[in-house]
């Protein structure tokens, strides 16, 4: 058990008997009232977020967490396969576990898996990835009066909008948080 004042971003706690990751934390002391800790958490099982207020002396149950870096190897009919670069063990996850992360995985890409109490809970991607444009329509000359965008399909199958000057085969930087084009790589 830890004090609410000891909470830090990235820690894993148990709240309402469910493990959750601390996303943001703010210590507040309003006027002559008692201090409190405002915390935004994300439940590991459901992925939903919650805004919680603890008293500064409240006890919080910490959960044992292990973070492992693994490399994406390949995808087949049985799921997505990853390899631990230290032990060379293969770990497989199904598509439902990965969620939207599957749209950003390329061969040999390193990701971080969060294990809570020995069980894989979430997969964390880097904030940006570099992907190749697989399909994209040609931009029409003269359409550049404003910031005109066009649809593009990436090597992973994800569809995003990119500026007109991006062509097939180009490598671009994409945000894994919102799936937006960030620039050429």
Question: What does this 3D model show about the protein?
Answer:
This protein is an all-beta fold. The chain has 3 domains: 2-62, SH3 type barrels (Roll); 65-124, OB fold (Dihydrolipoamide Acetyltransferase, E2P) (Beta Barrel); 128-184, Nucleic acid-binding proteins (OB fold (Dihydrolipoamide Acetyltransferase, E2P), Beta Barrel), CATH 2.40.50. The chain contains 1 helix and 16 strands. It has one helix spanning 95-98, and strands at 2-3, 12-15, 18-28, 36-43, 49-55, 59-62, 65-76, 79-83, 90-93, 110-116, 119-124, 128-136, 149-154, 159-163, 171-175, 181-184. The strands form 3 sheets. Strands 1-6-2-3-4-5 form a 6-stranded antiparallel sheet, with no helix packed on it. It is flat. The termini are far apart.
Number of helices: 1
CATH class of the largest domain equals Mainly Beta
| CATH-assigned fold name of the largest domain | SH3 type barrels
Structural class: mainly beta
The number of distinct structural domains comes to: 3
Low-confidence stretches: none
Largest sheet: 6 strands, antiparallel
Give the strand order of the largest sheet, numbering strands 1, 2, ... along the chain: 1-6-2-3-4-5
In the CATH classification, which architecture of the largest domain applies? Roll
Summarize the amount of helix as a percent range: under 10%
What is the overall shape? flat
């Amino acid at each position: 058990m830890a004090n609410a004042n000891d909470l830090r971003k990235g820690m894993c706690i148990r709240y309402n008997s469910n493990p959750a990751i601390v996303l943001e934390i703010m210590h507040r002391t309003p006027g002559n009232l008692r201090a409190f800790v405002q915390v935004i958490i994300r439940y590991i099982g459901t992925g939903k977020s919650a805004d919680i207020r603890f008293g500064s002396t409240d006890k919080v149950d910490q959960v044992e967490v292990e973070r492992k870096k693994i490399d994406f190897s390949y995808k087949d009919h049985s799921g997505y396969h990853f390899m631990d670069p230290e032990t060379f063990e293969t770990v497989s996850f199904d598509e439902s576990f990965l969620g939207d992360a599957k749209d950003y995985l390329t061969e040999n890409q390193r990701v971080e898996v969060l294990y809570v109490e020995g069980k894989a809970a979430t997969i964390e991607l880097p904030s940006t990835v570099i992907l190749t444009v697989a399909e994209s329509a040609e931009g029409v000359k003269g359409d550049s009066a404003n910031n005109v965008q066009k649809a593009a399909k990436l090597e992973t199958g994800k569809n995003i909008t990119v500026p007109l000057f991006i062509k097939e085969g180009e490598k671009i930087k994409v945000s894994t948080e919102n799936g937006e084009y960030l620039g050429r790589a």
